[in-house]
Amino acid sequence: MAYTIKVNGKAQTVDVESDTPLLWVLRDTIGMVGTKFGCGAGLCGACTVHLDGVAVRSCQTPISRVGVKAVTTIEGIGETPIGASVQKAWIDHDVMQCGYCQAGQIMSATSLLKKTPRPTDDQIESAMTGNICRCACYTRIRTAIRQAAGMAPALVAAPSPQILVASAAASVPTKG
Ligand code: FES
Ligand code: FES
């Protein structure tokens, strides 16, 4: 059956069975592979996308339930101001290790901050608890969320190696 869904602002028409999970439509039919398959059972959060801004598990969302709701994926979240701040905080805090879970983590964090711009630690915990990270980046994820919410100072970027070399060279006394 043909379905037209809106993904990151663009209409996409797909011809799939009504019970096909949105995850497979995104990855296999449309070819957007940023959204990851982890457990396929709604338990890990790797497949998280937004439907009208709300985080959902795309492995548990049949295409027939999407309707006219706007689908946002990791490929499009950086176009929103909150998504861009979350991605910046992730980079500033070097959150990722293997990275496999991180699309889902960013989608859950962005959904949280859209609804609750200055979340408490308990609210962060409760919003993120379903997103599993086998590399255990949990502390950095929580710190990055606090930065994106404006509740922790942004990290100051370390000077580049070139600047350090130039500065060390300038400090070496010349023979007079
Ligand atoms: S793949 Fe969907 S929750 Fe794990
Ligand atoms: S960064 Fe490796 S699973 Fe989360």
The major β-sheet equals:
5 strands, mixed
Low-confidence spans: none
Query: Which CATH class of the largest domain applies here?
Result: Mainly Alpha
Q: Largest sheet, order of strands side by side?
A: 2-1-5-3-4
Instruction: Tell me the domain tally.
Output: 2
Provide an overview of this structure:
The chain has a five-stranded mixed β-sheet with strand order 2-1-5-3-4, with helices on both faces. The protein has helices at residues 22-30, 81-92, 102-115, 121-128, 138-148, 161-171; strands spanning 2-7, 10-15, 48-51, 54-57, 70-72. Strand 1 and strand 2 form a beta hairpin. The chain has 176 residues and is of the alpha+beta class. The protein is globular, with a radius of gyration of 20 Å. It folds into two domains: 2-72, Beta-grasp domain (Ubiquitin-like (UB roll), Roll); 77-148, [2Fe-2S]-binding domain (DNA polymerase, domain 1), CATH 1.10.150. The longest helix is centred in the middle third of the chain and has 14 residues, at 102-115. The mean pLDDT is 91. Bound molecules: FE2/S2 (inorganic) cluster (2 copies). One FE2/S2 (inorganic) cluster (FES) binds next to loops. One FE2/S2 (inorganic) cluster binds at residues 96-102, 133-135, 137.
Helix-strand blueprint:
Layout: E1 2-7, E2 10-15, H1 22-30, E3 48-51, E4 54-57, E5 70-72, H2 81-92, H3 102-115, H4 121-128, H5 138-148, H6 161-171
Parallel strand pairs: 1-5
Antiparallel strand pairs: 1-2, 3-4, 3-5
Helix pairs in contact: 2-3, 2-5, 3-4
The protein binds FE2/S2 (inorganic) cluster (2 copies).
